[in-house]
Amino acid sequence: MSRKRRSNPVGRLARYSKVAFVRPARQLLGAYNRPGTPPGTLELEHEPGVPPPPPPRLSLFRYDNENLSELTEVPLADCAPPERASERNWLHVQGVPTPELLARLGESYGLHPLALEDVLRRGQRTKFDVYENQFFIVLNQPRRNEHGELTTNQVSFFLGANYLITFDDGETDGFGPIRERLRSKLLIRGRGIDYLFYSLIDMVIDEGFPMLEDFGERMESLEEAVLDRPSKEQRNQIHYMKQELVQLRRAWWPQRDVMNTLIRDGEQFIGDATRIYLRDSYDHCLRIIDFAETYREMMSSMLDTYLSSVSQRMNDVMKVLTVFATIFLPLTFITGLYGMNFDTASPFNMPELHWRYGYFYALGIMLVAVLCMLFYFRRKRWL
Hints:
CATH class of the largest domain: Alpha Beta
Number of strands: 7
Number of helices: 11
CATH superfamily of the largest domain: CorA soluble domain-like
Mean pLDDT: 82
Structural class: alpha+beta
Strand content: 5-15%
Shape: rod-shaped
Helix content: 40-55%
CATH architecture of the largest domain: 2-Layer Sandwich
């Protein structure tokens, strides 16, 4: 795959010099109920000083093999389960759902309270749970916001016999291409709801490839900058990118196990034809994890390269300073020797002290000493 290289690699890295990461302590905020609360409790406590999120947006696709109806900004009262067996519903909730919304959806579709609690308590690990009348899947999707900061959105799926409910707690809808396929292609509408489920999961997984490609370009630019002129900025870049890889690995690594379990134990709602496509998604998971692990090793190697470059640069500086100090050492000796006070009446006095060209004679000795030392350093390949 050919990539177009930007002309200013250092400028590209400047966009990521201040990346905001969620610390482990803050990852727990809102991810659990108060101790002693009954399981399946739908309560959400907002952090003090933080404004509540905007209300979620609901969109609904009702379709069968021939007909399709799309409703955007649909009220919850119009999101009832399909009445006919041949009809399929895809209900998508964009944004952070409220406890009231989840409770009403749970009553309408028979969703399990423990699964609804996992939807409300964001920051869940990627998982696959089997309930009596539905599958529940949680995927974590890394994205970059408009400031270049790496964030992780939780995407949840409820798969039933003829319905699919998805929750995306991000601000923007990432399923636009799937909606276009539903509007324009009969193939995806002619298959079961499990094929739509596969298409959405495959899109969430494949979002990792563009992110890895961008990460690889940043690594190449950073490596060039480290080898050219290492500085504290490059050291900070390495630190931030290693943190990003930890966050990406935490999001992507469990997807492999979830996809493997879904292929093996998903016969209840996933047909044999769709499981073949899920194997392809499983292969994509493996490729993404392999790339992420490779980049992780390369970042550790790049840190060693940075330290080696800094050490080499320091050695070069010390070598130049040592050469200059060594060159001036005999000059200092000669000037000190001729700067001494002698008794001109002594028979052991320097004859050049009264010589007319004594000053130029001393300068000539210094010049010859410098040339001889430079020739010696050059022959020893110290210069």
